[in-house]
Design a protein that fits this description.
By secondary structure, the protein is an alpha/beta fold. It has one domain (about 10-215, about 225-330): TIM Barrel (Alpha-Beta Barrel). The chain has 13 helices and twelve strands. α1 (about 10-20) runs antiparallel to α13 (about 295-325) and α4 runs parallel beside α13. It is globular and about 60 Å long.
Length: about 350
């Protein structure tokens, strides 16, 4: 696998060659004009890393802590629905690929497999992404199964009040939910329209149901971040759903500093949105994130070569981060500060 894929773009190209156009567009696309999708990348590209020299960087430490766990690197695999379209074993194959590196994997709330089955295939730590796609009784039963299966935390996704208009799919008359059909064994949730009625009262109720740490995924303002930690949330996940929900939203890296200030150390901060290289991860860590979740970059590894492709993607990300830290004179991801980053228009 190492000889086949020497760089992350190699893996992306291989995935694009393998996948049907409709499935590639489903994975790669965003909402409407895809302005948010592009803005995530542009905002990261505008940030420069300051270069410090004459530092002993023979040992660079990527380990970090998250929710009391020690992780080998500050990367998580973001939750992604429809993985069965990219590999026949979908979510199970994804966690198999994450296991050898000990990378934290976040299992989608619309996983194609029962949560117990995915957990059995995982040798590394798991979080669960909750979609509140049904009444409280349905959620209560699901969360009991999640906790019994050993997931280390739960994050409620809060930016899916309605399904975003993903025009690549619409133009091709492609319905990913219909395409999944009977490809995976997990039954569909009872009511995909349920999130439209959620409020902060539901956050309080969910917090009471769980014995594991609880977070909110989809926080994009300081006001909502402050309200989340006031409600006892332990994870604040900065996300615009990879540009797939609200078009013309801000880039996640642009709102990160105000959210870090609002949280003020009272919760762990995760971020996603356009992160695709090791350099991107370093920028977010320096600006205050504890963990960076990558979606599409790792999805292409799954599509290109299954678990082995996921593993190789994570290896390359680790190499990129280690090299970047050494070249900017840093020896630990836990000691990065905002003065490492400059905006350069």
């Amino acid at each position: 696998m190492q000889a086949r894929f020497m760089t992350l773009p190699d893996i992306r190209r291989a995935a694009k060659q393998i996948l049907p156009t409709s499935v590639w567009n489903f994975g790669a696309g965003g909402a409407e004009t895809e302005t948010t999708l592009r803005r995530n990348r542009r905002a990261l590209q505008r940030l420069a890393i300051r270069q410090h020299v004459l530092v002993d960087v023979r040992h660079v430490d990527l380990t970090t802590t998250f929710l009391g766990m020690t992780l080998p690197m500050p990367i998580a695999i973001a939750p992604m629905g429809g993985l069965v379209l990219f590999h026949p074993q979908g979510d199970c194959e994804m966690v198999r690929g994450a296991g050898p590196t000990g990378t934290l994997a976040v299992v989608s709330g619309v996983t194609g497999w029962p949560v117990e089955e995915v957990a059995k295939e995982a040798s590394g730590p798991l979080l669960f992404q909750l979609y509140h796609f049904g009444p409280r009784s349905w959620v209560q039963e699901l969360l009991a199964r999640v906790e019994a299966s050993g997931y280390r935390g739960v994050c409620l996704t809060v930016d899916v009040q309605v399904y975003g208009r993903r025009e690549r799919d619409l133009r091709q008359r492609f319905d990913p939910r219909a395409a999944m059909g009977n490809l995976a064994p997990n039954p569909r949730p009872p009511d995909p329209t349920y999130p439209a009625r959620l409020t902060w009262d539901d956050v309080a109720w969910l917090r009471e149901q769980l014995r594991v740490p609880f977070g909110l995924k989809g926080i994009m303002t300081a006001e909502d971040a402050r309200r989340a930690v006031d409600a006892g949330v332990q994870i604040v996940w900065v996300s615009n759903h990879g540009g797939r929900q609200l078009d013309h939203a801000q880039a996640t890296i642009d709102v990160l500093p105000e959210i870090v200030e609002a949280v003020d150390g009272r919760a762990e901060i995760v971020i996603d949105g356009g992160f695709s290289r090791g350099t991107d991860v370093i920028k977010a860590l320096a600006l205050g994130a504890k963990l960076v979740a990558l979606g599409r970059t790792i999805l292409w590894g799954l599509a290109a070569a299954g678990a082995a492709g996921v593993h190789r993607t994570l290896e390359l990300l680790r190499e990129e981060m280690t090299t970047t830290l050494a070249l900017c004179g840093q020896t630990s991801v836990r000691h990065l500060t905002p003065d490492l980053i400059r905006r350069v228009d």
